[in-house]
Amino acid sequence: MKLIGPFTQLITLANLSLRGKLTDEQLEIIPNGGILIQNKKIMAVGDYEDLKQQNPNAITEKQQPNIDNQIALPAYTDSHTHICFGGNRANDFAMRNAGKTYLEIAEAGGGIWSSVQHTRQATEEELLETLLERIKYLLSLGITTIEIKSGYGLDVENELKMLRVIKKAQAQTKATVIPTCLSAHLKPRDFPGDSGDYLNYILKEILPKVKEENLANRVDIFIEKSAFQPEESRNFLVKTKDLGFDITVHADQFTPGSSRIAVEVGALSADHLEATSDEDIAYLAQSNTVATALPGASLGLGEPFSPARKLLDAGAILAIASDWNPGSAPMGNLIAQASVLATYQKLSTAEVLAGISFRAAHALKLDDRGILAENKKADFVVYNTDNFQNIIYQQGRLMPSSVYIDGEKI
């Protein structure tokens, strides 16, 4: 048994609603707080001196004796990333900022197909090395649970290669890695049929092998004019569920309506939502499908932000994720992105913290984390500051002093 603290402020995120708007006044903030841990789980949180007196045999671990002000809060979850990839698309970014269109960039050899070619050319060892570097960076931000998609292989050999690399990464990091099969990212240029034929290829050739090797329990699809159309996507998602996979959707990024498909087929989440209409918002708010905002894509593409304020006010479950990928969202800093989203969408600090912790974890079916409370996973992040509001206020500049997974400092 171990007691960690004392913390100037312990922000538990306990007793907050899974859905809808939140105010900062609802936050539980324990002054001089402590966290009691045993067997990788939290036994109790409360006043440090009280916990110490009640548990005299607990090993005490003070963070940094020479630092007067420290705060702790639950570690973060990034529920949507594409961080397994080969190559670099800096030229895409420069061309886009110079006014080139998506089609012009693609014709010049850029776009998703560029990442597909680089990822196919990369060895498993090369992909694993760069993936572990990106995971290490996310851990430094306090992100201990990370969803990672395939989707830059787009054939049996290379989609399985990506998912095997993601599985190998899990064995070499203390972070929790959640793999998602995104073979339905777009129809590859070298596939000999139409988009419907390609989706059937995924169902018959890729997903059975993913299931056989236990490489992922989740499947994603990009529903958009440039990728897969609504009805063929709906049929694909239904068949995917019948195979035993959980499903999630890239929805409403440039055109509205596909988030309703996500709701109707029971997707865990609908991610992007930059083009979501008021009607779509009503659908999401009345469902259990998590609405995931991806501000990194808005910043990378110069597009509007997801209507996070409207979604929360309507009663939706709002998560915030980075969408870290080599093309449209290269930043990767979830805390900075969420802070910017808060500025433009007028989100409370409580709403931001919930969106990158327990609400994001819920989108991954992980309800054992994101809250500092009894029996929750002992993943938390510590900052050298006297006020938790500084995290969002400094827009990603304030870095954690310590990150804990299962009660152990990493």
Structural commentary:
Helices cover 37% and strands 21% of the residues. With 410 residues, the chain is α/β, with parallel strands linked by helices. The chain folds into 2 domains: 2-74 and 371-409, Roll (Urease, subunit C, domain 1), CATH 2.30.40; 77-363, Metal-dependent hydrolases (TIM Barrel, Alpha-Beta Barrel). Helix 6 runs parallel beside helix 7, helix 7 (195-212) packs parallel to helix 8 (230-242) and helix 10 packs across helix 12. The longest helix is centred in the middle third of the chain and has 18 residues, at 195-212. The radius of gyration is 21 Å and the shape is globular. The two termini are 18 Å apart. The model has no long low-confidence stretch (mean pLDDT 96).
The CATH C-level class name of the largest domain: Alpha Beta
The value of Rg in angstroms is 21 Å
Structural class: alpha/beta
What would CATH call the homologous superfamily of the largest domain?
Answer: Metal-dependent hydrolases
What is the count of DSSP helices, taking H or I runs of 4+ residues? 16
Q: In what range is the share of β-strand residues?
A: 15-25%
The CA-CA distance between the termini, in Å, is 18 Å
Oligomer: single chain
Looking at the structure, the CATH topology of the largest domain is TIM Barrel
Q: How many beta-strand segments?
A: 16
Count of discrete domains: 2
Low-confidence stretches: none
Share of helical residues? 25-40%
Biggest pleated-sheet summary: 8 strands, mixed
| Overall 3D shape | globular
Mean pLDDT value? 96
| Architecture (CATH level 2) name of the largest domain | Alpha-Beta Barrel
